[in-house]
Amino acid sequence: MTSCDRIIGEFDLAVVGGGIVGLASAVRGSEELPGARLVVLEAESEVGRHQSGHNSGVLHSGVYYRPGSLKAVTCRAGKAMMEAFCAEHGVPIDICGKVIVATTAKEMESLERIELRAAANGVLCERIDSDRLRILEPAVAGIAALHVPETGIVDYYQVCLAMRRLIERTGGRVITGARVDRIDVTDDGLRIGTSAGEVRSSWMINCTGLQSDRILRLAGGTPLARIVPFRGEYYELVPGRQQLCRNLIYPVPDPAFPFLGVHFTRMIGGGVECGPNAVLALSREGYRWRDLNPMDLAETLAFGGFRRLALRHWRMGAGEMWRSVSKAAFVTALQRLIPSLRSSDLQPGRSGVRAQAVSPAGEMIDDFVIDRTPRAIHVVNAPSPAATASLAIGQRVIDALRRCQADSDVTSAGGFDE
């Protein structure tokens, strides 16, 4: 009998994906569905090994997001839920605040737009002048800034571990080394084939991030967007120069591009990260240039939506790639915020891969997307601030699941308005 033939067990709910969104969905499920037999299936040897464990650890406040969007609503609710979770489970958190810095008069209009969005989203922030900015961040050069005191930092990998412990303590199972390669829909549930064996479950939640569109397809759905992986690379300030950044320093982002630009982030465990850039990853799990998966790359290049995106943003893409191979170019980008920064102040840091949903028209999908197939809920797109919003996203997912369970025709597929 092969591992794929071996029956691991029968469950009421299987959550596929042991990142922070999947774990948060399982946490909410264990609370909202008492008595349910619950399992989390994770492909890697431990939870939180991809986006959840490779981010800058910022607890976002919700200043950037379109008012009324799923991002804005879940970020605000999720931040409060995350703060409460960390306090209850002993995960260190620091509400240190951040500044969003305008360095030119041209950026003032965008700064004002962010300030209006922050107010609409209920975020506490204050416009400050250059003198006040220098008090908060003496090394930063800017003509004005938004000070957002409620932004914080946390170690989301430690959050993932705490969530796993809670799930297991309340009777759920977390199975690692269980990469899903088959999903069969039956009259009474799902048969989920994994590298560890087969799981039978009445319902499924897909929170697989970089693999979310593929799992949706395995479950019988037709993805309306394709996941394109973008790698973000960081440098770190060397010991002795970390005083250049007291807390969090962000530029005014380009409104035409859904990335926030290179910034400085003090880490909860010590040190300061600088970055990231955003370059196409050659594998969905490719954290270095040499991490090449020919199938992943071929799929990306063959996707018309990616080609349209690349054609539209080729100039910016070329600049991001140049910063990837040229430390001098990376330093120049960072010097817009801290002019006194020198190349010798930086040492190579870690990198992360962002799962970005791209439409066939070549548009980056900016908001969270939740979809449905028979007996399954799919978190199709969950970019930043998904970690901050994870518990609120999880609540949305469980609410959607309960609506599906109440639907007498569980075999009819179709999305629903979130």
Structural notes for this entry:
α1 (20-32) links the parallel β1 (7-16) and β2. The chain starts with 6 loop residues before the first strand and ends in a 12-residue tail after the last helix. It has 11 helices and 20 strands. The chain has 3 domains: 1-93 and 153-225 and 365-418, 3-Layer(bba) Sandwich (FAD/NAD(P)-binding domain), CATH 3.50.50; 98-149, no CATH class; 227-246 and 255-359, D-Amino Acid Oxidase, Chain A, domain 2. The strands form 3 sheets. Strands 5, 6, 7, 13, 14, 15, 16, 17 and 18 form a 9-stranded mixed β-sheet that branches. α1 (20-32) packs across α11 (386-406) and α9 packs across α10 (327-335). By secondary structure, it is α+β, with helices and mostly antiparallel strands.
Brief overview:
The protein is an alpha+beta fold.
Please tag this protein with its features.
single chain, 418 residues, FAD/NAD(P)-binding domain, D-Amino Acid Oxidase, Chain A, domain 2, 3 domains, eight-stranded mixed sheet, 32% helix, disordered C terminus
CA radius of gyration is 21 Å
| First and last CA, distance | 43 Å
Named CATH architecture of the largest domain: 3-Layer(bba) Sandwich
* Main CATH class of the largest domain: Alpha Beta
- What is the 3D form? globular
How many separate domains make up the residues?
A: 3
Quantity of strands, as a count: 20
Percent helix, as a range, is 25-40%
Continuous helix count: 11
Largest sheet: 9 strands, mixed
Q: Structural class, please?
A: alpha+beta
